[in-house]
Design goal:
By secondary structure, the protein is α+β, with helices and mostly antiparallel strands. The protein folds into two domains: 106 residues, 2,3-Dihydroxybiphenyl 1,2-Dioxygenase, domain 1, CATH 3.10.180.10; 109 residues, 2,3-Dihydroxybiphenyl 1,2-Dioxygenase, domain 1 (Roll), CATH 3.10.180. The protein has four helices and 16 strands.
Length: 243
């Protein structure tokens, strides 16, 4: 079983979907696909899409991952053996929950292979899973086993663990141990050659700065969703001097 492609989803309140669409197409230099239910794809020119926006009817939204695979039933079986549960089954694809409750999807691969380019010195390339302390070790073990051909390694700080996909796949996974117990959540990360320049551009597009961290800046998009600008190489996804 191998993962052929990855999608990062921005999950945003349906009532603010238009704001999310306008902002994220500008940030990623893409255009919108025709909607499919609550989903819309951000389509780049000359490459394959790897970002989608989903309208949610309740809550503030967040982010989740879709894994495109050759054999959806086999992937689902593997996830269930490792501790996942099924949240919903559809014709040809499934929604699952990790042991800590983080949603992710198994979908068919449709031949995607060309990664979108860096846009204005930044690339949306990572989904960060925000995990409570009591579930962190279990989640690291689960995702490491599920993504068996990905590189699994400690991050730059003790509260981070990184899962780096094989070359060509467009979206990484970061696991973050929170300092409090609360519901599982996730957010999008962009790798930025210059965080400050990207922050200014995003604010011009309607985003707000929320907080500054060691290697990152927390932002809020016009639809109300939080995401991070991180000081990583947009080509490799790693911190300067790292992979």
């Amino acid at each position: 079983m191998s993962i052929r492609w990855t999608y990062a989803f921005a999950d945003r309140p349906a009532e603010h979907a238009d704001r999310a669409h306008e902002f994220w197409t500008a940030v990623t230099d893409t255009h919108l696909s025709p909607p499919r239910g609550e989903f819309v794809t951000l389509v780049p020119s000359g490459a394959d899409a790897c970002v989608k926006v989903q309208g949610v009817d309740s809550g503030a939204g967040g982010a989740h991952l879709d894994f495109s695979v050759d054999d959806v039933p086999e992937f689902v079986k593997s996830a269930l053996r490792l501790g996942a549960t099924i949240a919903a089954e559809h014709e040809g694809w499934a929604v699952l929950r990790s042991p800590a409750g983080q949603l992710f999807c198994a979908v068919p691969w449709h031949g995607e292979s060309v990664r979108p380019p860096v846009v204005d010195g930044a690339r949306l390339d990572q989904v960060c899973l925000d995990l409570v302390p009591s579930a962190y070790d279990t989640e690291v073990a689960f995702w490491t086993a599920l993504l068996a051909d990905w590189e699994s390694r400690p991050g730059s700080l003790p509260e981070f663990h990184v899962l780096v996909p094989p070359p060509g796949l467009p979206v990484r996974v970061l696991l973050q141990r929170l300092g409090e117990e609360r519901a599982a959540s996730a957010h999008l990360d962009l790798a930025c050659a210059d965080i400050e320049a990207t922050r200014v551009r995003h604010e011009q597009l309607g985003a707000e700065t929320v907080a500054h961290g060691r290697h990152w800046t927390v932002m809020r998009d016009p639809a109300g969703g939080t995401y991070c600008l991180t000081g990583r190489d947009p080509e490799t996804g790693g911190l300067p001097g790292a992979g």
